[in-house]
Amino acid sequence: MSKELMLQNIEKAQHEIDSKKNIVKNGKMRQRYHFMAQTGWLNDPNGLIYFRGKYHIFYQYNPYEGFWGSIHWGHAISDDMMHWEYLPLALAPSETYDDHPRGGCFSGSAAQHDGKLFLMYTGAANEGGGVGQTQCIAYSEDGIHFEKYEGNPVLTAPEGVPVNQFRDSKVWKHEDTYYMVCGASRDHKAQALLYRSDDMFHWTFFNVLAESRGEWGHMWECPDFYPMGDKYVLMFSPMGVGEHTSVYLVGDFDYQTGRFSHYISGEVDWGFDYYAPQSFLAPDGRRIIIGWANEWEWMPLWKDWGPTYKEGWCGFFNIPREVRMMENGTLQFLPVAETEILRQDPICQDMFVVTEAEAELKAGDGVAFELKMKIDLEETDADMLELILRSGEGKKTVCLFDFKNAQMSVDRNASDGWSRGVSRSTMFLKGKKELDIHILSDQSSLEIFANEYQDNHANNIFAGNAQNRILIRTYGGRAVIREYESYGMKDCFRGND
Ligand code: FRU
């Protein structure tokens, strides 16, 4: 019976998508190469996995409107992480443990077990009068059609953890055992709880992997735990720590005790729009993360989710990023090499000098483009370098590299008449010979990577096509630019590539 209800709810959602997708697809604010759902609302990436020769992404999804609610799991596959094929929805709310209208099938992850594709997700329940959160299992023989486990939920919140603060399980396999880390809150402090299982169905508590003493907030959404060389990384989106959206901790881990001891912390991204990243392993061993390009209304710098709901949709993912570790143990987050397959119309220049007189740069059509360059710090004596992006019709987004004050900032107060705020990061350049800058611009977003991929700013802006000029200038001296490359970016969604 309940198996049928989930299929009915998927079919109903699928009808809704089919009836709207051809209109939504023509929305002026739709991205050209960042992953979006066909219609409706999207938030966290879930269940990222390379399975039987394809990249799979699932996503928190409301097919019924461009706002959050009634959460399903959308599903898409790809050969290259750039071009995605939509598959039928994987999960729909259907059971008392996952069908709350302000809940549904919340975030989780995927693992291959017993030749099948397993999903572990958070059920947000309709029972008991509250939004109780439990961990649930679904599995699939073909990697497309899923069935919920009849023994769900497989885990409920442990004593001392409020029932609505136990979510976002991330599963992985080590030797012959499955491990799972889940976000929780105890005594108003965040915890990452570690569980283990031999068969994906029966789970037992192992240890508190890590916890906040208050400095890292009261809840960690979407915790993820993975090795990097001989170190381990815990990555999460903390609630209750000001402007942090997605952070990482680096340290040591012992499978004997289930304890993580960390001594480095850092920011995955400093922009307004990078939340709930999840990682997975590519077949060639790269650790890749994908993050949702937005943030929640409880965050201090939040304004709204943007104007795209007017076109019947909301939400996209930032470009997949490869995680690398520097010698000092901090992390870098680089756009995956696959973005290069989208390049067209290259422009390269070995060297040029920028002065206080504004000059124009060319990159694709000035809307969807990639731009890379290096500032030669030994030859540069300017106090600041300013890059003005998506400029036109009196609007612009200003990216400032302030050498004197060691700060990078991206100002979107004049971006589009809608977005607001200045994202800022400390740009530590002592002893460096050059500053690398890498920009991915799409119809409605700017991802700016700088300083060895540690000063990353993902910001959504909803600029029109006439905002297509790129300008550059300095303040207080000159700057020498080397290895300038720019490209237009192919459209992955409108089939003109
Ligand atoms: C993070 C999050 C998760 C939750 C999901 C609900 O963005 O709040 O904690 O599972 O979104 O859609």
Automatic annotation (TrEMBL):
Pathway: Glycan biosynthesis; sucrose metabolism. The keyword Cytoplasm applies. It is found in: Cytoplasm. It holds the Pfam family Glyco_hydro_32N. Residues 342-479 form the Glycosyl hydrolase family 32 C-terminal domain. Residues 34-330 form the Glycosyl hydrolase family 32 N-terminal domain. It catalyses: Hydrolysis of terminal non-reducing beta-D-fructofuranoside residues in beta-D-fructofuranosides. Its main location: cytoplasm. It comes from the Bacteria. Keywords: Carbohydrate metabolism, Cytoplasm, Glycosidase, Hydrolase. Belongs to the glycosyl hydrolase 32 family. Its EC number is 3.2.1.26. Enables the bacterium to metabolize sucrose as a sole carbon source. It comes from Enterocloster hominis. It is an enzyme of class 3 (hydrolase). This is Sucrose-6-phosphate hydrolase. One of its GO terms (molecular function) is hydrolase activity. InterPro entries: ConA-like_dom_sf (IPR013320), GH32_Enzymes (IPR051214), Glyco_hydro_32 (IPR001362), Glyco_hydro_32_C (IPR013189), Glyco_hydro_32_N (IPR013148), Glyco_hydro_beta-prop_sf (IPR023296), Suc6P_hydrolase (IPR006232).
